[in-house]
Amino acid sequence: MRTQYFGDISVAKVLDGTDHFKAAIAFPDVDLNHFHQHHDWIHPFFDFANESIIISTHSYVVKTPEFTAIVDTCIGNDKNRIGSGPIFKANEGVLSQWNNRNSPYLDNLIQSGVDPREVDYVLCTHMHADHVGWNTKLQDGRWVPTFPNAQYLFSQTELEGMQKQTGNPFDEYIRLVYEDSVLPVIQSGQSIIIDSDFDLGKGITILPTPGHSPGHFCIELRAKNSRGILTGDVLHNPIQVCYPHWTTMFCEDKEKANETRIKLVDYLTDSDIVVLAAHFAGTTAGKIVADANGIKFNLLD
Predict the structure, then answer these.
(1) What mean pLDDT, rounded, does the chain reach?
(2) Residues facing 218 on adjacent strands
(3) Number of domains the chain contains
């Protein structure tokens, strides 16, 4: 993805990795022929040979004249992501690939021109394992914040939900994620608990978008002649702009996730707002447009 500019705000993508996930598992009870009907534009996001959605996991580096922020810290390295409970078993195809990874993410970040020591804020649109992993890194046998001088902004609703689930005796997976990727940040004193009124400065707005998770939020960027939105996991694959009522197996509250997604797609269609989703592959950035053949997602160059 080439760097996107919204006035004096820039957004760049830093890749952690790309995976293929069986569409029939991601979208249960969905007729996969719908993907084939949109072959002309969906192909950068769908592997037709294996009927799998292509999932890019990446961070966005948001720079303003005042600060540098990382939005969503992906999967991370050296993390124990093997469980025995229902969350792991339901997602084993993906989660087993996240176990003890060795990704070049930090090298990619540095090559993009960002020194981890120079990051001012870290924002997690939600606290699923693939959005908080690089909050920390393994150093001398312990987990320490990857961005030593940053303030980590955690949604109060999201954090409380995660903390409550860490005590669930039927599944240890969330506890693993909390203990290696969230708790060390809190213990370091670098976390700030926020709500939707938190002020990130002119042109940046936090939008509550619950459903995929309780405290999920998007980040909207506004300038005089351009707008963008970091949508987190409201949209997992661009096929959902055609079928916003399609929810994935990853969503915690499917009814609420659908409601949020339908509203967001309606808001974004033909709005000229640049969509920056957390998992869209290809050149990632694009716009939702409607024509005589329906709604589609057009990648930008």
Answers:
(1) 94
(2) 207
(3) 1
